[in-house]
Amino acid sequence: MFKAIQSTVNMRGLSVFISDLRLCQTKEEEQKRVDQELAHIRQKFISEVNLPSYHKKKYVWKMLYIFMLGYELDFGHMEALNLACSHQYSEKSVGYLACTLLLNEGHELLSLLINTLRLDILHSNPEFQTIALACTSNIASKDFAEALAGDVIGLLDFRRSTATRMSLVKKRACLCLLRLFRKVPEVLNAEEFEHIMIYLLEDDNIGVLTTAMGLFLGTVARNPKGYENTIPLICRHIKRLMVQKEAVKGYTYYHITSPWLQGKLLRSLTYFPPPSEKRNFDVIEEALSTILKSTEPQKNVNKSNAVYSIFFEAIGLIAHYGEATHLLSAACIELGRLVKEKDSNIRFVALQSLANLAEKNNVGKELASLQHVLLESLFNENDPSIRQRYLDVIFYMCEEDSVKYIVGELLLYLEKADYKIKEDLVLKIAILCERHSSDLQWYMYCMLTLITHAGDFIADDVWWRVVQVVTNNDEVQKYATEKIFAAMQPKIVHETVIKVACQLLGEYSDLITSDTIGPQNIFDSFHSKFGTLSTTTKSMVLTTYAIVNLNY
User: How far apart are CA 266 and CA 238, in angstroms?
Assistant: First the structure.
């Protein structure tokens, strides 16, 4: 492909055409020049049957340049297919590139290309194989997957190969097979493909490993069953790159050996339980410990991205292993440091990782020291996406001994919270009260406060649950009825408050009757708001009138 691109440098007509377009002062001038050139190319394709190879390639290159400028092409597709079917590499490479750009996976002409691709994939010339694999990787449809998957797998199967494949062919074949697998997952069977994956992971070439791990992640993300025997090989590469820190020429990025491969190796392990073999587990734990200890802020942005990409994959694996590893506390400490970073991108990913860690593991005690920092940051953060992440972390870290403090702070924040986060905030407060509270009176206080201040965001299930708790617990019936009666006194009250009041005052108004509170007071508290209510709520209020009248 590079040879084909280099050959265009000597195409004078192409160079002149590009120069003409660059010299155009207006869009109209450019359009006129493009139309003129397309008319010329169309006339050449129609009138000259045996067009010389040089001119075929030149005209197709011009069409590709026009297409990349955003102009539509309604001809030339068959000429691109004919070039792809050529036996000359210079023509074939231009043809494949044109098909890749001009034809999408639903194009009707693509079926004419399948046989040519298959012949080139099986060709003895690696250059033909690589360009065919590259084209398939970009435009393959379900028909391609069903027709070509077996041949692509054959390139990777050492048992069906008479010679060692070039690394470039292996890399292209892995990427191509991943595309085919995403189109038709049934083309890969774990029982048949595991030995091929083991063969690929035994390769010490970093480029082959990186593409093989991409294919491996694609398959195990769908179903990891059947690939358990690959774990020792993954552990071997983890030791090589993360513990021994082996430097590989050509694959070092800011003094880090292939950070993308390291990230893929760590992520792949999250699809499997911790290794049962102690030797492999010790290697993983040593690598994770090394990553946690060596991750420090970097002045260079690119190096920082590389370092943190590995770090956050390590955190994800620690969260997955949970109590099987002794690194949970260290991970919490490191993430606690990063949530205070000024860089919003690092803060966002750190909070996301911390939420994942807290959701999967009981780390409330480890995060107790961060409660004040997280709550204060939630109140003061301007970025809504980061605010949401702060709320997620606070929600997952909350435990029974900290629920009163956290919910109290969240209720204070509720009054000034942005409407974008308010619905989720209300739901999380309700869940925390339900999940961790052992004090029913405190539970009722929090829920009624929530209903009073955030009625728009209270789902029916939430207020019905409050009524259910009151009904089933005699000790809070009087308290809840007093609180809801007090909430009904302002002139403007949310309709959700009125619905709850209908249920509680209708059933338990006799519990709060006194010299200052009687049936007339209860009637007035409802009737002053009756005209603004929905039909459903009005019917509830009328039912409440009847029940109160019967009680007195």
Answer: 8
User: SS3 for 477?
Assistant: helix
DSSP class per residue in 347-366: HHHHHHHHHHHHHHS--TTT
- Beta strand residue intervals within 153-262, DSSP E: 252-253, 256-257
The CA-CA-CA angle for residues 385, 387, 393, to 5°, reads: 110
Residue type, position 482, single letter:
E
- The residue assigned the tokens 């009176």 is 441
> 263: Cβ–Cβ under 8 A, 6 or more apart, which residues?
309, 310, 313
Burial, 206: exposed, middle or buried (Cβ in 10 Å; 0-12, 13-18, 19+)?
buried
CB 313 within 8 A of CB 274: no
pLDDT reported for residue 99: 93
Check: CB of residue 201 under 8 Å from CB of residue 209.
Answer: yes
Tokens of 375: 């709550």
Q: Return d(Cα 452, Cα 517) in angstroms, integer.
A: 21
Six-digit token string for 406: 């956290």
Give the separation between CA 523 and CA 102, rounded to whole angstroms.
75
Residue type, 316: G
Please give the Cα distance from 117 to 141 (Å, whole number): 13
- pTM (2 decimals)? 0.85
Please work out, in degrees rounded to the nearest 5, the angle formed at the alpha carbon of residue 67 by the alpha carbons of 63 and 72.
105
CB 179 within 8 A of CB 144: no
Distance CA 30, CA 219 (A): 47
Question: Which residues, other chains included, contact 17 with Cβ-Cβ below 8 Å and sequence gap of 6+?
Answer: 37, 62, 65
CA count, 13 A, side-chain hemisphere, 548: 26
Rounded Cα distance, 518 and 524, in Å: 10
Contact 243, 287 (CB under 8 A): yes
DSSP 8-state code for residue 274: P
State which residues of the chain have pLDDT below 50: 2, 162-163
Which residue type occupies 433?
C
What's the rounded Cα separation, in Å, for the pair 331 and 354?
Answer: 9
CA dihedral 12, 14, 19, 24 (to 10 degrees): 140
Give the integer Cα–Cα distance in Å for 413 and 10. 68
Q: Is the distance from CB of 253 to CB of 210 less than 8 angstroms?
A: no
Q: What is the DSSP letter of 299?
A: S
Q: Do strands 252-253 and 256-257 pair parallel, antiparallel, or not at all (unpaired)?
A: antiparallel
DSSP summary character for residue 122: T
8 Å CB contact between 396 and 431: no
- Measured on CA atoms in the order 8, 14, 15, 21, is the torsion positive or negative? negative
pLDDT of residue 41: 93
Q: How far apart are CA 86 and CA 229, in angstroms?
A: 43
Nearest in space to 382 (alpha carbons), one of 428, 426, 421: 421
Q: Is residue 312 exposed (0-12), middle (13-18) or buried (19+ Cβ within 10 Å)?
A: buried
Token output for 261: 């491969």
Q: pLDDT at position 6, please? A: 52
The predicted structure's pLDDT at residue 268: 96
Rg (CA), the chain: 34
Q: Report residue 86 as tokens.
A: 């050529």
